[in-house]
Amino acid sequence: MTPTATPLIDAHHHLWDLDERPQPWLDDPALATIRRTFTPDDLRTTATQLIAGRRLHSTVAVQCVPDVPETEDLLALAEREPLIGAVVGWADLTSPGIGDLLDGLRAGPGGTYLRSLRHLVQGETDPEWLQRPDVERGLAAARDRELCYDVLVRSHQLDQAIRLAERFPDLPQVLDHAGKPSIADGELADWERQLRLLAAHPHVVCKVSGLITEANHEKWTVDDIRPVWDVLLSAFGPGRLMFGSDWPVANLAGGWNRWAATVDELLDGFSDTEIHAVLAGTATAFYRLPSVSEEADVATRFS
User: CA 216 to CA 66: how far, in whole Å?
Assistant: First the structure.
């Protein structure tokens, strides 16, 4: 099959321009190597590794900071940048005006690219943040506007994600970075137990992303990732998994191409249908991305 017929979608990456917007989280000395601006052209130049014979075709750009102007900028960028097929933005879910805010984002430049919201719940200390009444009001506003929700929690917060799935069966949800299992220390038992409970909810899917930065950045191998991969496959099945790079954060632990080569190896022996689900199908359905047949020839996207 041609690359046009077999697209590869990166369902999770970031972009930032430090001249336009500070990223305070990058002040951490451990993140010095990614403390610079990253653009769509940087991603094009970087993402050259094929996965199952597929090359990068489309992406989902994800918010970094709790800042509406960043979301507005990502939406406007998506409107003029053919590589970006959807945006996961941020809005204050606790705001009484969340409905009007979402309506404004959707009506603004590139607003049709807004497909999901995300909040960095991993940084919240309230163990029931996702169940706060004001947060649930915001999630209902997103649901009522046919938006999805990206769940960013650490493994010890998966109980919040499970309750969210129980309380919002009509809000499509995706677990970012597989709930951040503790790959580096190998403590996976509690994560696996909670992940399987979450996966029992059929409206929840999962991103195979962000795993290498949960491993030893310098020493990880495919064998360190495989136990998590096996659990994800068993719990969700390939039809509810989507590939994401978490670039440029992935640069801290090997980068886009090394992660892509790892996924290529992990997919060895899978059927064409299963490979398509992980590399394009699940993301296309969840984020309502245009099918390849609806787009111009992929070659023009990289000309």
Answer: 28
Q: Round to whole Å and give the CA distance between 144 and 129.
A: 20
Residue spans of alpha helices (H) in 57-188:
68-80, 98-107, 133-144, 158-167
Report residue 120: phi and psi, to 5°. -80, 70
Contacts of 5 (CB under 8 A, 6+ apart): 292
Each residue's pLDDT tens digit in the chain (303 positions)?
444 458 999 999 999 999 999 999 999 999 999 999 999 999 999 999 999 999 999 999 999 999 999 999 999 999 999 999 999 999 999 999 999 999 999 999 999 999 999 999 999 999 999 999 999 999 999 999 999 999 999 999 999 999 999 999 999 999 999 999 999 999 999 999 999 999 999 999 999 999 999 999 999 999 999 999 999 999 999 999 999 999 999 999 999 999 999 999 999 999 999 999 999 999 999 999 987 655 544 344 333
219 Cβ contact list (under 8 Å, min separation 6): none
pTM value is: 0.94
